[in-house]
Amino acid sequence: MDSLLDLSDRLYLDVADFAHSTPHWFQWLAEVWTEAGLLLFGVLFLAGWWRSRDGSSRLMALALLAPLATAFGYVVSEGLKSLIDEERPCRAVLGAPAALVECPPYGDWSFPSNHSAIAGAAAIALALSWRGMVWLTVPMALLMAFSRVFVGVHYPHDVTAGVLLGALVAFLVMRAAERPVRSLVETARSSRSSAVVWCAGRGPRAHAAPHASSHAHASPHADRPERARHGAR
């Protein structure tokens, strides 16, 4: 265990030295990304909900569960952090260069990384609710996790544990809650409240109905040639 922590210390020093060798604009991007990534995940949650309004009840259930599963990932990470009082590397590692951002205050512990847990949870939740999104969300999560080491506020093992923990919690929540939430979506879609129906979406039947209606109107006209032929006989 001590050897793994020593390795994490050395990796932290290597990343910190690399960070200080990069241009100021690149350092600024890393600082911004540690927070902007969370906002981008939020935008993707909204986009996933909006696109699911015309989708199946299962698709809408997964879209609604995605931010909830991410929140669970954060709660579990925060609970674990309160049990493991690991000091931040920006104070604990001797000889380390100054962090690019202000070192969090004493008592705001380092393990695991909450940012990384949120990123890992959001990446998996969105991947499960939006096919093909994994190729965007997983790189986003990994970059966010790396950025926390880059700016100097987390060890590599903090962010690794955070990403894996968040991803696992989100996966379990999505799988466990999919069926009951799908039932709620089906109930909401049959509600008499237009506001509830708008939030849950009308589902794919909203597009099928006009198509079926057009066939219903067309069928009487389609019968006329057949009746005309029978009359002629």
From TrEMBL:
Domain of life: Bacteria
Gene3D superfamilies registered for this protein in UniProt: Phosphatidic acid phosphatase type 2/haloperoxidase
One matching Pfam family: PAP2
Subcellular location: Cell membrane
UniProt entry tagged with the keyword Secreted: no
Region feature Disordered, mapped onto this chain: 207-233
Protein name (Swiss-Prot/TrEMBL): Phosphatase PAP2 family protein
Organism: Streptomyces narbonensis
